[in-house]
Amino acid sequence: MKKIQISVLIATFGFNALVLAVEKCPDTVPDEKIAQYKQAIKSFGGNLKQELQQAIQTGGLEQAIDVCNQRAEEITARHAKKNNFYLGRPSLKVRNISNIADDWESQVLQQFEQRKAAGEPVENMDYAQVINEQGKHQIRYMKAIGTDTVCTSCHGGQIKPELLEKLDKLYPEDAARGFNIGDLRGGFSISENMDACE
């Protein structure tokens, strides 16, 4: 009798383990995840914008360039650590080489450009996808960054000489120029591992 009970227990626990082992990752990103990412981006973007505005009020656009050069990566890292996922600001035309887009980001940014050409406002654009990379599932999400009036001061086609001099010194390979209001500047990119599913 005991032998039969033990066998039943083993079979039961073995079945449960099997169910857990074959749990599948979702094919699409859950709405609650997208909402979480949008909130994280809003907080991150607001923090960065506040720092830039304070710098402009204190020391003008030259000091704002210093914030981008010295503080932006620190702010990014802090928000990424807080949310426990990768956070970046890739672009197809980068100023800081640490913002060079990976393959997925490049493809999404190119799709955003196509959507813009079709008439969609940049501020409405985002994209989410579950991917399997080398056997590991990830959620990838990107929210487009548009170009506004303030952006064109340092990223437009008519940058003041004193700012150009500083930008050339800090970013010898700077390609993030020539943007117009409403252009796609880049994107907020999030990547999060999905460890609890296969």
List the helices and strands and how they pair.
Layout: H1 2-21, H2 31-70, H3 72-83, E1 86-88, H4 103-117, E2 126-133, E3 136-146, H5 149-155, H6 161-170, E4 184-193
Antiparallel strand pairs: 1-4, 2-3, 3-4
Helix pairs in contact: 2-3, 2-6
SSE sequence, one letter per element: HHHEHEEHHE
Distance between the termini: 38 Å
Number of helices: 6
From the helix content, strand content and strand pairing, which structural class follows? alpha+beta
Mean pLDDT equals: 88
The total of beta strands comes to 4
What's the short story on this structure?
The chain contains 6 helices and 4 strands, in the order H-H-H-E-H-E-E-H-H-E.
Main attributes of the structure:
alpha+beta; 4-stranded antiparallel β-sheet; 53% helix
Description:
The chain has 198 residues and is α+β, with helices and mostly antiparallel strands. The chain has one domain (26-193). It contains six helices and four strands. The chain has a four-stranded antiparallel sheet with strand order 1-4-3-2, sandwiched between helices. A hairpin with a 2-residue loop joins strand 2 and strand 3.
